[in-house]
Structures are given as structure tokens and as C-alpha cells.
Records
---
Amino acid sequence: HVIYPETNDEGERDLWVPDYGSGRLLRVTATEVERVAEGMDGPWGLIPLEDDTFLISIRIIGSVEIITRTGERTEIVTGLSLPTGIAHDGSYLYVANSGDPARAIEWFEYSVGDAHPGESGLLVEGLGGVMNIQFGPDGLLYFAYGDGGLGVVGRIDPATCRANGGCTADDVERMVETDLPVPLA
């Protein structure tokens, strides 16, 4: 569902791939597919952090883990509802819950190197099937979700939603509406 490309020390491209079906984190190079970690219950979202680790959402068990490039895993958030997309802005972690419209997107105070997130709360409620989330160049949070059979890409200002105690579906600015099948990932 997500891949993260990067250039290795030899100047070649590597791909980091959470393989949902096999429960693995893979590193795909020009010559091999390396199994970095195994035994994850539905890895989905993947984002790199500045300290050479990744955050990864584990959909089936409802968690977020820190994972090193050598496969060491530490669970930092639990109790989510089918988490899919994740985003990080340096101070906050945002998690899409595809399984609960009342908790569509949640936020957690989180700085790189913290053992666990601090304060947390609801960012957006009232959206179904939220999948991927990502920051745009405008600093706003973009996300794909379903609405009445339509695939929608919407956006919000996360600082405004946090300050207001959360946003509703009515506060989401709809950027794209399509009849592509939901989930629009």
C-alpha cells in the first residue's frame, strides 16, 4: 500500500515495502529482496524518521511501531481501529483509522527518540475508510477517504483542528471527488 524509495550508499535506489499479505517489512534492492522484519499483523503505512528508523502502522492489531533498518521493533501506540496511513511533522504523529469513522484521524504528540507519545486527541471525525494521509507543500494534511461510494481526497489544517478539539467531516475541504472504487489509497 505504501513504498518508500531512497538512494543507498552506492547511489542505487532501494525500496522499503510493508508487505501486508506476508506480514513483513521488505527492503528491495537491485539484486535482492531482504526480509527486514517478519511477524507483523498487517503492516500498512510507513514513514521514515530523522534518526534512521521508520514508523509503521500495523492494521490488524491496531498499533503503530518504531522499526529500525535492522528489524528491531517497538510498539508505541495501541488501541487504534484498523490504522492505515500515518504522517509525522516533527512534533505530532497523525494516524488514519479506517475502521472507525468516529475516530477517522487521531493525533499524538511525538518527537523522534521519544519512547512513547505524549498527549493525544481526535483530529477528524465522521469520515469513512480513511486510508493514506500525507502533508502537502502547503503544510496541510491531505487524506483519501470514502463518501457515498465516491473516492475523495480532502485536506485540513491540523493545527486548527487540534486547537478546536477536533474537526468534523463538514470542516474538511474536499479537493478531489472521483467515482474510482473506494478505498482510494
---
Amino acid sequence: IERETQLKEVLKIMGLNSSLHWLAWFTKSIIMLELSIIPMTILMCTSVMTPKPIFNYSSLLIIWMFFTIYATSVITFCFLISVIFKKSTTAGNVGSILFFITLVPFNQLSSKFFTLPYIVKVLYCMLVNSGMGLGVTMMLITEGNEEGVHFISLFSRETDLGFSVGEVMISMITGIIVQMLLTVYIEKVFPGDIGIPEPWHFPLNPFVKFMKKKMGYDTLINRDAILQERRRIS
């Protein structure tokens, strides 16, 4: 809605930094989700409601960390959708479809996961819902073995999937970083109807400036400008 009404560009004109704007949205969203994650984690890891909890042997802190990472991945996924589309209704409809599509690899490839190459497994877990589904499946397998997931066994590949819960979490964090980088890039290059777009290669600008300074390119330009000015005056 902010993109559709150009409210964000108005806030930029008023001096609001773009990173601060994203941080405010993230803070609001993660607090709202934590209000669900924390009680849910307590109920799944303790015998408050049932005699035997779902995660009876696993560390409560790891379960909370896993679902917090998943919540963060959902937030950054929504950020990415918000900068791709110009209309809020289109973003809501298409974003919802894409959100459920990220669960398709888990439904189709979960039985063949152990045969996949390692890089494909990482990409598989970078998807929002597929990573969550695989992580929960692996934690339930360890619960069935009466071992659970703990910090000491976070990266152990005791399951037959050839992957660990820790690797799933790291892959999900990598997906979060990629989604946020794409969000910032698309927002800069395609700001909207009244925004000032950056060139597609703007992330390379600091490197180009550094190389020009190192090679003395700026100094040569300044010398040429001074000589031309002297010639003009004389």
C-alpha cells in the first residue's frame, strides 16, 4: 500500500532513511509473530497441555530459534513481494500463491531428499516453507529416536537425510539474507513512478570509485580541468 500510494517516497523526502523504514517494519512484524511463537514453543516443549509434549527431548531454546528464523524468513519474503508489485491487491494475491508454492518442493522431493546434491539441499532449504517442513521433520525423527535436538548435536547427521538441523537453519538464514538483498536492490532500481531509480550496477559503484582513486583517475581529471580553466583564462 505504501508503494502504491507513493507514501514511502514522501517519507524519503521528509528525511526518513530507507533502512530505518525496513527496520521499523521488521521490528513490528517480528514482535507480533513472537507473541505466537513463544507460547507455541512452550506448549510444544512442556507438559502444560498434554502428558507428553511433542518435543519432549529437544532443547526449548533451539525450537524457539528455529521458528524465529522461520518467522524472519516469512517477513523478508513479504518484503520481497512488496517491492516487486505496484498494486497491493496484486501483491497480496500473487504473494499468497508464491508463498504456498515454496512448500511444493517439500511435498514432491522430501522422499528423495537424501539423493539430492548438497547444493540442491541448501537451495531447497532456502525456500521459506520447504526449509521449515524439512526442519520440523528432522526434529521429529530425532524425537522418535528419544534423542532430540541439542546444541551439541545440532550439526550431527544422525538421520538418513544426509543433512542436519543446524544446516537447515543456516540455509534458512542464507535465504533471509538473499531475500533482503533482492528487496533492497529492486527497491533502488525500480522505486516507483515518482522515485529516482539507481542504475542496475549501483552496488559496484563503491568498488569503481575505489579503483579510480587507486589508479589516479580522479587526479588526472582534476588536472585536466585545471589546465583547461587556465587556458580559458589566458
---
Amino acid sequence: MHRDYIKCSCCGLVFCHPLTVPDYADSHSGEIAGHYSYECYVDIGAGIESMIRPLIPLLTNSITDLDSFLDVGCGFGYCVKFANTIMGLKSVGYEPGEYGKIGSKVLNINVVNQYFRVNSSTEKYSVIFSSEVIEHIDDPTNYIRTLCNTLKPKGIAVLTTPNTNYLYHCLERQNDSDIKALSLLGPGQHLCLFNKQAMVSLLEKYGISKFKIFEEDASLIVYFSHDLD
């Protein structure tokens, strides 16, 4: 399928056309999630250190009253395990793909094998983590609203997503072989791509004024809260 990428002249958001959302519940089925495939992912492809890095400040900045953790789009579930064993939080992940089922058994963690929606949980969480998910969503504003409605009043949400500024930098250097730049586009899967300005616009559109955004190479790391110091 041919896809065009369109850039907003106001905020810099890049979105693909058409906005066709893949069925991630089937994306890792059959042989893809077979024994050798998931072992290869665990041993080589997971990037565990980069997954948990955005959570480290929650350990080192003396943030208090954290007791529960929700990972939306948790994949295999490494961050759910980290939050439970290292951060000491009651933790749950939501993952529609087959990796969530496997990770739940292998890591002995609580993973709900379905999409996280506005009515998925009546519980509110003190930490909500969503890494490399929002770019797969066709309605980012509603996604932010759903996370905020699930966040405790003094809780904190942590998002990561590809940074389009990195892609532009590669294009300026005419370096189309950069693996990070190529994966950033994620043809067929990444629907909305953000730079810092676009992320600020999204958060402010929903009325979130307490946030911090860091540009780390090819990624944006976003912290926001109802009450973020």
C-alpha cells in the first residue's frame, strides 16, 4: 500500500495517509512468536537498558507516594518486571500481541492480553508508562486523555516516542542508511510522528501544562502529570 507522509506547518507533527491501524493482536502470532523467535528477541533484540532508562529518574529524584504501575503496550513485559521487583510497585501491563502472553509466563508478571482502552480499568495508577506506543495511535489526543483519566492526582506518566528531528538531521546529511532513522518511520505501523514542538502542542491541547520533554538522540522522553514539579 502506498503511503504519504504529511507534515503540519504549525506544530511539525508528521502523520501518514491513509491512517490505517494494524491489528497488533495478530502481529506476533504463529511462527513469529514461536520458541526461537521470542528467544532471539530476549537475547538480542529487546534493548532492555533503553526500555527501563526513562524510569530511572523515578528512583533517583525522591518522588514519593508511588505504589502502582501500569505499562500500556508493554510488549514482553520487562518494564512491568522492573517496576515490580526494583521499584517495588504493584504492576500490570497491557499488551494485545502474543509476546505479552509469553512474557507473562516467562517473567511471572501480570499482563492483560488486550488493548488498553478508556474503560479497561477502574483503578488509577501512580505511574503510567507507555514506550513507543503513541506513534501507533490514530487519535493521540484521545490516547493522552485516556492515560490522564487513569492517572492518580499526584501520579506521573512517562512516554517515549521517535523524534522526527533526528530524521530531519539524517536527511540533511543525506544519510539514508541510518538504521535509527529508518526504524523511526516504521512504514505501515507508525501513524503519527512527533518532534518536541508537536508533543508540546498535543499536551497543551488537552490542557496539560506540567510536563518535561527530553530529546535523546532518536527518541523523545516525555514526563507529565496533573501535578509535576
